[in-house]
From TrEMBL, chain A:
GO annotation, cellular component aspect: cytochrome complex; plasma membrane
Organism taxonomic ancestry: Bacteria, Pseudomonadati, Pseudomonadota, Alphaproteobacteria, Acetobacterales
UniProt keyword annotations, A-Z: Cell inner membrane, Cell membrane, Electron transport, Heme, Iron, Membrane, Metal-binding, Oxidoreductase, Transmembrane, Transmembrane helix, Transport
Name this protein carries in UniProt: Cytochrome ubiquinol oxidase subunit I
InterPro entries cross-referenced by the UniProt entry: Cyt-d_ubiquinol_oxidase_su_1
From TrEMBL, chain B:
Name by which UniProt lists this protein: Uncharacterized protein
Taxonomic lineage from the root: Bacteria, Pseudomonadati, Pseudomonadota, Alphaproteobacteria, Acetobacterales
Annotated source species: Acidiphilium acidophilum (Thiobacillus acidophilus)
TM spans (from-to): 31-52
Origin: domain of life: Bacteria
Keyword vocabulary terms for this entry: Membrane, Transmembrane, Transmembrane helix
Keyword Membrane on entry: yes
Amino acid sequence: MINPTIVDLSRLQFALTALYHFQFVPLTLGLSFLLAAMETVYVITGKKIYKDMTLFWGKLFGINFAIGVATGLTMEFEFGTNWSMYSHFVGDVFGTPLAIEGLMAFFMESTFVGLMFFGWDRLSKPAHLAVTYIVALGSNLSALWILIANGFMQDPAGAKFDPTTMRMQFRSFGALVFSPDAQAKFVHTSIAGYVAGAMFVMGISAYYLLRKQHREFALRSFRIAALFGLISTLAVVTLGDALGRMDYLVQPTKLAAMEGLWHSAKGPAAPWKLIAIPNDAKQKDAFSIGIPYVLTPLVAHGWNVTIPGVYALERDARARTISGIKAIIALKTYGTTHDPAALAAFDRHEADMGYGFLAQRYAPHQDLSAITPKEMPGVLAKTARETIPNVFVEFWSFRIMVGLGLAFIVVFAFGAYYSLRNRLDQHPLVLKAAMLAIPLPILACEFGWVTAENGRQPWTVYGWLPTFQSASSHGLGYMIFSLVGFMLLYSLFIAAELYLMFKFARLGPGVHAIPVPPASVAARPLYGQPGYADKSWK
Amino acid sequence: MKNLVKIAALAAVLVLALALAVVAGDYGPWYFAWMVGTVMIVLIAVSGAVLFETQAIAASTHPQQ
């Protein structure tokens, strides 16, 4: 077995790189479609201000895109370097969406990003607009293939274990792509990116309005972002509910941890815990406040349904571990003898194979056949306990994400309402809230990622392959060196991103605008209006 | 003739959308929901900007309102 410290360091390294990378991804997903919306208005109305808007926000998109790509590249290599056992076990299946992402979406995205930035004078208006839409689509297709791969880790649809090769192999590409978990996760994540992009544009526009700079530019940007963000936030909450239901159907341990359910919740009066202090060691809450009649309809979309809690799931895990141990012993026998009887025994217990792998950690010398009857209860108890993810982390990361999502509805709703009534100037509080909320959607995405991935533990492939068996066998020095290196490099990327974003946001859109002769500016009715005394814009 | 082509093109988009809905519906509707939803979100944002221009023109034409 791999050294547990190496496994933990591998997990930490992947978690850190993913968390760093995921600070850039939502903004790319959202800004790309916002740019498309802005350019659409430019093509429809012919007003130059919308072209300048596309150029200015496009510059910020470009900074974010470049650093996002740089931070994301390493992650795909990490599967090979730090998770070689995992890659061996599921590489045939998991590698396919990653390869498609690299070949199709990434190249499509990168090629058209170049055209988007440098094609303004070389392409017609509709052609350039089409390019911008392709960039937006490409960015989101990248997310699609990554989330299909992640969906496989959450719910391994479309694959079957081959006892001869000891690997998961393709059963159905369609089942992989159309896996309900992958679908719900992609849509939820992608639209969460739209929220991040909208808040970014709305917040910076609010900053200009508060400082009475670039007013005409900011009012229009604010309007587009507020409406874009409001609809996106409503969608992301709805789709989050769909994803929660998927967890109820395919990942009951994740759901139990998310809801802090120690005991099974029997409908319809089961309370939904608003706040709680779950104690993982004692497997109970130190404190909790719940709202009755909310949990069951929220999770199960029904009334008289029982949602299994941690204790019930551990009981179930014990039974599955007994079956899993039989599967692994039969598999081992089949591997050495190729005895059809051993294969038949394995087939009977195949569905619980992962639990057998999980139990190996607690078997003497990782040999399941060496567990004595006296040791068995202890092995079963430890294995069952391990199948439950950290409840405290899961419970609170989920609630912070949901709480932030609901708060965004309020910010966007007020922003959209006052923007539509042209009353933003009278409500500086709304502008300040929008400005302060700029980083919050990204924070919500990070907590969403923690909810999804912490809730998958202890598995890399839910129910099939435990995390502790998935890592590579590196030395401690290598892991620490690479971890520190990643942290330093990625912190540098974050610092560069923040510096450039602040710099260009402070400079404002005037820097990027193509100079327009005053006469033609005056000819446009909006530029001639009172309040448009913005010299930097010209 | 031009209108006929436009109607035919829109009909083709409708048929494609329905076909996608049927295919996606067999597996789960979320990819389809994403496509429709994204188009809707972009169009609402665009219409908000177009409305802004209309409001601005109205304000400059009738400044007392």
